[in-house]
Amino acid sequence: MGIDLKAGGKVKKTKRTAPKSDDIYIKLLVKLYRFLVRRTGSRFNAVLLKRLFMSKINKPPLTKLQCLLEPYVRSKGRKFERARGRRNSRGFRV
Q1: What DSSP assignment string belongs to 51-82?
Q2: Measured CA angle at 46 (ends 62, 77), to 5 deg
Q3: Domain Large ribosomal subunit protein uL15/eL18, which positions (predicted)?
Q4: Using CA atoms, how far apart are residues 85 and 39, in angstroms rounded to an integer?
Q5: What is the pTM of this model?
Q6: Which residues of 39-56 are buried (b: 16+ CB within 10 A; e: fewer)?
Q7: Are 2 and 11 in contact (CB under 8 A)?
Q8: Alpha helices for the chain (secondary structure H)
Q9: Farthest-apart Cα atoms in the chain, separation
Q10: CA distances from 30 to 27, 35, 74, 83 (A)
Q11: pLDDT digits (tens, 9 = 90+) for 39-86
Q12: What are the residue boundaries of the structural domains of the chain, listed by start?
């Protein structure tokens, strides 16, 4: 048994495929990143292109992309291993 859909079928989710802004510099960036997405398999370029289409209210910053930043612990390596035991600079002598 299926479900009865009204005429037109399911409502598809829409997303922007072009910026609404008339700013020529944003349009130039869109051209560049469309080319880069097509030619390279980089996820960074795809995410940045998607963010260029977003409205000003919903747009996250373009600079810090989480796909580029490594998780905090992995990027720090074994820094936490060295912090075991008592601190040498504890402010008083015994």
Answers
A1: HHHS-TTTPPPSS--TTTSPPHHHHHTTTTGG
A2: 65
A3: 2-63, 70-94
A4: 52
A5: 0.57
A6: eeeeeebbbbbeebbeee
A7: no
A8: 24-39, 43-53, 72-76
A9: 83
A10: 5, 8, 33, 47
A11: 998 888 998 999 999 988 888 877 766 656 555 555 555 555 555 566
A12: 24-75
24-39 vs 43-53: helix axis angle to the nearest 10?
A: 150
The two tokens of residue 9 are 């079928």
In single-letter form, the type of residue at position 88 comes to N
On the CB side of 52, how many CA atoms lie within 13 Å of its CA? Answer: 22
Tokens 């990027």 belong to which residue?
Answer: 75
The pair of structure tokens assigned to 12 is 């598809």
Would residue 9 be called left, alpha or beta, if left means φ above 0 and alpha means ψ between -120 and 50 degrees?
Answer: left
